[in-house]
Amino acid sequence: MKYFRSIVAAMALLSLPAMSASADSSDRTDDPVTMGYVENVYVGKLGLEMKGKLDTGADSSSVFARDVHIYNKSGKDDWVRFRLVGKNGRTVRYDQNVRRFALIKLKKGGTIRRPVIHLPLCIGGVSGLAEVNLADREEFEYDFLVGREFMASRVLVDSASTFIAPGSCETEDRE
């Protein structure tokens, strides 16, 4: 079984893009870290802990954002004000520049336009900047969905395991 998992993990790694233009490439490692399909995700400089699903079927990452308000700053740039709620109920408010808008296909048909921002992430000691779209994930089990753009060249996903990430995310450098 261990041999089979190694082969599956190697095949998954080969199918991932070598580098994502939207993710922070300076934090890439030579040796990807094996993690479960569900791990704790630490978001932002404050390290808000959220339960996340590592989804190899999703291109980009998505987070359950509440009270989302898009507005113009200085009459030209799109900004978004929102809040995230962590596993322990702690809330962090954000006010960030919108990098772009993504059109997301809905299961019921049609599309929805979502703001995309950059957020620092850390999962099992693997950290970097991720492009994240702000979504209403209230009907989903996981508040954070980590997509391939962040995981490429960094993470291998063991689909039979949860919470096995070997490293930790230090909070000393966070505000």
UniProtKB/TrEMBL annotation:
<protein>
    <recommendedName>
        <fullName>Retropepsin-like aspartic endopeptidase domain-containing protein</fullName>
    </recommendedName>
</protein>
<keyword id="KW-0732">Signal</keyword>
<dbReference type="InterPro" id="IPR008503">
    <property type="entry name" value="Asp_endopeptidase"/>
</dbReference>
<feature type="signal peptide">
    <location>
        <begin position="1"/>
        <end position="20"/>
    </location>
</feature>
<dbReference type="InterPro" id="IPR021109">
    <property type="entry name" value="Peptidase_aspartic_dom_sf"/>
</dbReference>
<dbReference type="Pfam" id="PF05618">
    <property type="entry name" value="Zn_protease"/>
</dbReference>
<feature type="domain" description="Retropepsin-like aspartic endopeptidase">
    <location>
        <begin position="35"/>
        <end position="166"/>
    </location>
</feature>
